[in-house]
Amino acid sequence: MAEPSTPAVQPVPPQRGLFQVSSARRSPPERTKARTQDSRVHNRSLVLATLYHQGPMSRSELARDSGLTAPTISALVAELESDGLVTDIGPRKGSRPGKPANLVRIEDAVNLVVLDLSHSDRFTGAVLDLRGEVVGRAEIPLGGALGAAATELVLRLAAELLALAPRQVLGIGVGSPGIIDDTGTVRHAAHLEWSQLPLAERLTERFGIPAYVGNDINVAALAVLHFRSTQAQNLMVVAIEHGVGAGLVVGGELVEGEQFAAGEIGHITVDEDGEPCVCGRRGCLDLLIDAAHLRARLARTAEAGRPAVRTAAGRALGAVLAPILSALNLNEVVLTGPAELVEGEFLKAVTATARARTLPPISASLTIRSLAGDADLILLGGACLVLSAELGVL
Amino acid sequence: MAEPSTPAVQPVPPQRGLFQVSSARRSPPERTKARTQDSRVHNRSLVLATLYHQGPMSRSELARDSGLTAPTISALVAELESDGLVTDIGPRKGSRPGKPANLVRIEDAVNLVVLDLSHSDRFTGAVLDLRGEVVGRAEIPLGGALGAAATELVLRLAAELLALAPRQVLGIGVGSPGIIDDTGTVRHAAHLEWSQLPLAERLTERFGIPAYVGNDINVAALAVLHFRSTQAQNLMVVAIEHGVGAGLVVGGELVEGEQFAAGEIGHITVDEDGEPCVCGRRGCLDLLIDAAHLRARLARTAEAGRPAVRTAAGRALGAVLAPILSALNLNEVVLTGPAELVEGEFLKAVTATARARTLPPISASLTIRSLAGDADLILLGGACLVLSAELGVL
DNA sequence: CGTCTTAAGTAAAGACGTCTTAGAAACCCG
DNA sequence: CGGGTTTCTAAGACGTCTTTACTTAAGACG
């Protein structure tokens, strides 16, 4: 009798971005029902994705391209326009028969805030537009902060970037070291002494903006897939800075692993009689190719012997890669880390060894290259998290 | 003017099973539009899958379980019932308050025909029901047939099995050696001298029944995933018979690879100074652990030395697995092949080596087991292909 | 033994989204 | 200037799910 016509309290999903499209792929193989309005959000992001990847086009072209009918496209575009995500930029230049088309373009009315927590001495971050172009940057020195203090620095840096963003922020994307589950909880990050830290939740709560957190190298693999790759749907990124890690994309999807620990290749045994490692074993890959270890090894080697050290390191990685590349039929490998270590003999040896140890079908189409100079890979990876979860655009 | 009201020729998709649900995942990253009726087929297979995995249940339970509303479920069940896929088996036994529920059960009104082309001397096949239970078997000796002659034998065997099937056949599933793309074309199969053979198409054309072809070990991995596994969404099957091959499931999905050659691990170099291999390299994994090679090696070794040979072979496989398991964070490995080779020292050495060469997070939850006795794995894998493409049930 | 409560299932109407059909607008071409 | 072409929108049809209300059937309870 209090509220006669109000239908009780609407059970609205708790946190949800303005334009959120996918429910961020929580937990693996759950079949979900399809309501009739799901097709709307699907088609909406189909239109958005088409515009995103192919640039401005007319409604008719969108219709042909997407398989939807013209009226539907018109309705979707109108909706996207009223959300401020696209604009009608008027008639196309040049003359053709028929009524001239009005082009529709993705509106850069939104920004992304992205964070890279992979460095050992500082956290860096940036404000990006939808294209991944940097609009602003900020960083914050870590100063040895650990645990909760480090978390506080993440929040501070995020706040700073949010203040910097000229437009509405669609979401926050973070690439962090450690093992991170699909809810954006850092299960374990040794360097930062984090454990079971629900970082995405913290960020979302604090700023009221959807946040997504992924492993730094994993999101770098996403960045390569979407921003730096040719056509490959299967690729691997290997980083040799601050420990050896990898990120894998298989069939266009990031590999998470059964315990969200995919890509942890640093402590694979390479030589059972090798040096002892902090992990308690001997001859780990990490001892041979991690930047710090490799630098130390180079430093205590005479000038003349250094190329051989680099080559030996590259061979070790190549030998580890060979089974992975073969098993997954993966053609594209990207190495990152300090350029002076990654490029040159090391890269050459990795490539040669991987080629020599795999069958022609694999080795022939294999590309191993360095993106060592690409400092923004992890930031772009954070953007990938946001763009796919919020706009379904990637 | 010929046909006034008929809307021209309807562009019906050419081949399509009676109840087909997914369009068989042709080519990877193609965004598709969502029509309103797509939700119908989705929800239909959601209901079917629930019944398939959880056994008979009432419409109300289906509604709670699926998140759909009761009226929708009623409508879907009615539709499935008129298709002969489910039956109402009357009220549940035992008494509870409220109106007694009528249970709905999947009807075994359909059969599957599955073929295993992996043996070198014969093709085997079976008729299965929806549960994967064998209803009938047949096989056909290969007699050295190659190329088109071997293809003809496949068709003969399929015809024989179709004649054997007591009920309507939902589809044909084939596990074949070689590299097979996502249209069911055998791109290359050395033993059978097949190349660019559109086997699925041939079968579909000949019998008018949807057919699916996959690599033998790959589909075996599907079989393990759906019929022999616990909960793992990431697993690997390694076969050491007739060459060394693997099938990988990552995130619940079969890994195909960029050139559909995923799992080809036989010619990874294990020992750069090893024996020469037919592939032109030296020290391939195949030379150490393939059944034929391993048997030969055992035969020319004195009784006392044989365990050491088995152990050495196991170690080699373990060393190859370690990088793969680490990179993918994979916990479950299944070995198949001749039981007397796979089990015992070999399996022990594989496990020990893989454990010793991976970090605790991986090695602790790692299970490596043998399904060497399980002769029907590839047949079941063929069933997986049909069940997921036609019913969306897996 | 009759009434209440609980649960299962169905029927009718409403909401949402796409498609079909039809038409208006704007341009080129001859 | 009229016909052809292309773009885009308007109105209604259709399919699918949901909401709401009702019927059916059993146990619980006094």
The major β-sheet of chain A equals: 5 strands, mixed
Can you give the helix content of chain A as a percent range?
25-40%
Shape of chain A: globular
Structural class given helices, strands, pairing of chain A?
Answer: alpha/beta
Strand order in space, largest sheet of chain A: 6-5-4-7-11
CATH domain class name of the largest domain in chain A: Alpha Beta
Q: Which ranges of chain A are low-confidence, i.e. pLDDT below 50, for 5 or more consecutive residues?
A: 1-15, 24-28
Give the averaged pLDDT of chain A, no decimals: 92
Tell me about this structure:
Chains A, B: This is ROK family transcriptional regulator. Chains A, B: Belongs to the ROK (NagC/XylR) family. Chains A, B: Pfam families: MarR, ROK. Chains A, B: One of its GO terms (molecular function) is DNA-binding transcription factor activity. Chains A, B: InterPro entries: ATPase_NBD, HTH_MarR-typ, ROK, ROK_cs, WH-like_DNA-bd_sf, WH_DNA-bd_sf. Two copies of one chain form a homodimer. With 394 residues, chain A is α/β, with parallel strands linked by helices. Chain A has three domains: 38-106, Winged helix-like DNA-binding domain superfamily/Winged helix DNA-binding domain (Arc Repressor Mutant, subunit A), CATH 1.10.10.10; 110-221 and 378-391, ATPase, nucleotide binding domain (Nucleotidyltransferase, domain 5, 2-Layer Sandwich), CATH 3.30.420.40; 229-373, ATPase, nucleotide binding domain (Nucleotidyltransferase, domain 5, 2-Layer Sandwich), CATH 3.30.420.40. Helices cover 38% and strands 21% of the residues of chain A. Chain A is built from 13 helices and 16 strands. Chain A has helices at residues 38-54, 59-66, 70-82, 147-164, 199-207, 216-228, 285-289, 291-299, 306-328, 339-342, 345-356, 360-364, 377-391, and strands at 57-58, 86-91, 102-106, 110-116, 122-128, 134-141, 168-176, 179-180, 186-189, 194-197, 211-215, 235-239, 245-250, 253-254, 332-336, 367-370. In chain A, the strands form four sheets. In chain A, strands 6-5-4-7-11 form a five-stranded mixed sheet, with helices on both faces. Chain A has a five-stranded mixed sheet with strand order 14-13-12-15-16, with helices on both faces. Chain A has a three-stranded antiparallel sheet with strand order 1-3-2. In chain A, a hairpin with a 5-residue loop joins strand 4 (110-116) and strand 5 (122-128). In chain A, helix 4 packs across helix 5 and helix 9 (306-328) packs across helix 11. Chain A is globular. The N and C termini of chain A lie far apart (49 Å). Residues 1-15 and 24-28 of chain A have low confidence and may be disordered. The first copy, chain A, binds a DNA duplex (30 and 30 nucleotides) through helix 1 and helix 3.
